[in-house]
Amino acid sequence: MTQMTRTSNPPLTTPITGGVGESPLRPDGALKVRGEFAYSSDLWADNMLWGVTLRTPHPYARIRSIDVGPALALPGVYAALTHEDVPGQNAYGLEHIDQPVLAVDVVRYQGEAVAIVAADHPETARRAAAAIVVDYEVLEPVDNAETAIFGEGVPKLHEGGNLVRYVPILFGDQDATAEVVVSGTYEVGMQDQAFLGPESGMAVPAEDGGVDLYVATQWLHVDQQQIAPALNLPQDKVRITLAGVGGAFGAREDLSMQVHACMLALHTNKPVKMVYTREESFFGHVHRHPAVMHYEHGADRDGKLVYVRAKMFLDGGAYASSTGAVVANAATLGVGPYNVPNVKIEGWGAYTNNPPCGAMRGFGAVQACFAYESQMDKLAEAIGVDPVEIRLRNALSEGSVMPTGQLVDSAAPVRELMERVRDKPMPPARTSEVDIRTMPGGASNTTHGEGVVRGVGYGVGIKNICFSEGFDDYSTARVRLEVIGGEPVAMVHTAAVEVGQGLVTLQAQIARTELGVQRVTIQPADTSVGSAGSTSASRQSYVTGGAVQSACAAVRAEVFDLARERFGVSDLALEGGKVVSASRGVLADLSDVLGDRAVEHTREYRHRPSFPIDPLTGQGNAHVQYGFAAHRAVVDVDVDLGLVRVVELACAQDVGKAMNPDAVIGQIQGGSAQGLGLAVMEEIQLSGAKIRNPSFTDYLIPTILDMPPMTIDVLELADPNAPYGLRGVGEPPTISSTPAIVAAIRDATKLALKRIPVRPEHITGT
Amino acid sequence: MRVKFTVNGEERTADDVWEGESLLYVLRERLGLPGAKNACEQGECGSCTVYLDDTPVCACLVAAGQVQDREVRTVEGLGSEEELDPVQQAFIERGAVQCGFCTPGLIVAAHDLIRRNPCPKDAEIREALAGNLCRCTGYEKIIDAVHTAAAHSRGEATS
Ligand code: FES
Ligand code: FES
Chain A: nearest CA to B109, how far in angstroms? Predict the structure, then answer.
């Protein structure tokens, strides 16, 4: 029998479930599976009108005149508005205010909004928009980024010229030479975020002359800041509530229908709903920047990098959006997760007449990663080592210095990530018993294995987490603790946007852990609380997570004050709905201590500051945190037809702390799928600056047949600077899956493959 | 025109329906059933999948007039007020829902698969759901959810 000693009271609290580190079910799950969750396209109001946008068919043209008369003549039409009807400033933009709400005298891309119409049926509105007469003088579009900046006699698309931003990164010796040199030019096509829920929302005119907007977006307050001046309203008269968001991936960071719906609602004094069709959606949001990147890597005979030099051209399209920040990412992360003593990278972002480009998951790091990882494979071949080995020899680690001069001051397990994906068991080789559904070409029965070659490839990437370059990046949380129905309940209110990633779940988990209560309600996100910043840059768990944590801490401190007064002890904790003392055990029920008081605090959270980079040298502590993921891809390629099947993806990623392990896996799987899409199928095809494939028939995204099974390793190496030690999760897996898949196709085909997406004709050479 | 049909067991009538309106539009905008989603209106994404006389169809491709006197069952008609259908339950439990825009269509398609094939293999699940796009999940958890739902429907416990 064990000897019993009595040293302390046994724990008397029942631990709460669903805290940080667990995977509770999503609070919005039941509504979503029942079809009852109200997405922005599901909104409805009495007497509601439908808004429709007239877009230009020309990538570049002067507008001579617009006649809305024929639209207004149709029965059921309530308004047809042009730039003349914009109540305030006819311009908006995230970094540069350069995009008109409605075009004035020039259109700069195919699909630019020219007029808007409201009618009592969407079809009436569409017909009315089509009836508007616009007289254009069609101009020759500028459709190449490098030409736009350096070409002679190229028209200036904006007053300041066609350069949006130039970012040089100069580090070490610019004239360094090396024994082994590999170079290449790499191209990335224009990828679309292709969220499933189209741009949509409803604007409702308010009695105070303001407007209430219900919309799917990524950042409520940055919308508000742009909408209010366009409407000539003070910001507090533009109240925005988040409607259900059907995916985002960067495409909702810029405005789409927001100002248009508000203008129509204020003009007609009726609620106005706008929902883009899929085709319109391809014209209605920014895309991933296409890029052309010239790289040269120099190394010693052992494959240790001596220098990297690169020139990268990113096509920002007709309006700046976030091009400046995308170029900075591509350049500052341009050598990848490797130690390089000498670096010269130059990045340019250009205005052209192509569709505007801006944020998409991976944000500049995706393009660079395809180039530098292609180069690393080339270098491995030149040195005569395998692709994993070349990466291990140059792997960045904690204590390394980036080409910006920034010290990597928390975990950077590049080596371990690579080793983990390398050491995963390989999927079984193909047997003679072929299930054609697992072959390239699948059920279309194009091969039973003849001409099919297997290949293996690797990729590893780096991403900055949170907003960089000195941006005042913060989030706000309001937390209220009170007794409801005899039970302590925490209410969390933020303006942080749930796009599907599970932020609502996470906010509740944090409140449970910090306040020791089971019941948490998450208020709808709206502008009645302070800004949460954008749901992008893999930052919300970090920044809004930090805000919820610190608001909870403030609430807890006040509860402790109450308890201290009453019980005279100060070694307090909140656990399982009780106030607990380390020395005396359970003191009281939390509801008892609260009584009929509601304890409420609002807190802002800022991550540690980042700093601008020097415009001439690119030196500076630009980034807040780095995230890393590595992939191994195994592919089967039908070399006769050029068809590719990805057989398996292995991924390893460091997440600092898996706040919600199931959601982390979901991000890695979904992110990897988008990287697969870019590798082998997804591209907005342009011809003369016009989109040739604005539909899901012609713009292909991975289906369930395209996505292979994945094996995933999640590392948790805490970052001491971040709440709970977490590291942003959403973007890294999108970045490294693409080059891994392309490397695997190269391994199978021995082709150079310098452009993504890899198309069948790149493989067959036809 | 006037269209009369049964939706989720209830007789419903939609008035003033235009020629070009789809079943999807009538469900969403005239009958207050926004469960089926519109993500492409071209039959490419499966978000609008509903049962028409017990066969899953893309509601965006069905003209409203075609459903006269027929029976439609939408995601709102699966499960009951008190209890979710096993497919709905499994989608939540297995983390197959992120933004959820694809979910109603996938649930109807998976529901139909499990009725026809109570013990589907991975390849059969992939084949059956090949017409349903999801941009968020990478599909793996959706496959997990279908296995779980099938096991529940067979009366087996799952972990
Ligand atoms: S909306 Fe019907 S298939 Fe896409
Ligand atoms: S969960 Fe977002 S599209 Fe499937």
Answer: 13
